[in-house]
Amino acid sequence: MKKKLLLTVLAIIVCIAAASVYLFYSTSKGDTIESRESMLNTAISTGNDWTIAKEIELDGYIISAAYSTNSKSTLAVFEPTGNGKYKFNTSTNRSNEEIIIGGTAINGKWYDLIWFNGAKTEYAEITYTINGQIQDTLRYNTDAMDIICIDNPEKEYSIHVVYYDSDGNKYE
Known about the structure:
Helices cover 21% and strands 47% of the residues. Strands 1-2-3-4 form a four-stranded antiparallel sheet, covered by helices on one side. It has a four-stranded antiparallel sheet with strand order 8-7-10-11, with no helix packed on it.
């Protein structure tokens, strides 16, 4: 009788330990690209099998540009939670053929985030209109398909983004 009870208790302890180890290692911590891709697969229902193409670090946050197997693209923001771990915060999702224009507030600052996965381009021109006045057009090299991140202190504005490829084709 004592042997049965001891074996039962031992089996329960082993099961609890195994479950704890599994949960510890299977929970996405956001500390690797693979774990952030897993978070995207869970958080964004419009895409399948997300692959992160580019990332930038912005004041401790990670901004990921990713594409899916069903022709979707996203700009996702991962917020630090401490000890090198991150949690999914938000994303802006589009079809691959569309330019993603989104933004995020990080530590009290607003950042415009822009990315295009639809075609290989050479540069992008970004024009801001503030209080009805067109501001200078900003030009960014995009041949590496990097994420464009602009610190923007304005509260009310409009933004127009055009990408150009090497043949002069426009993507708006």
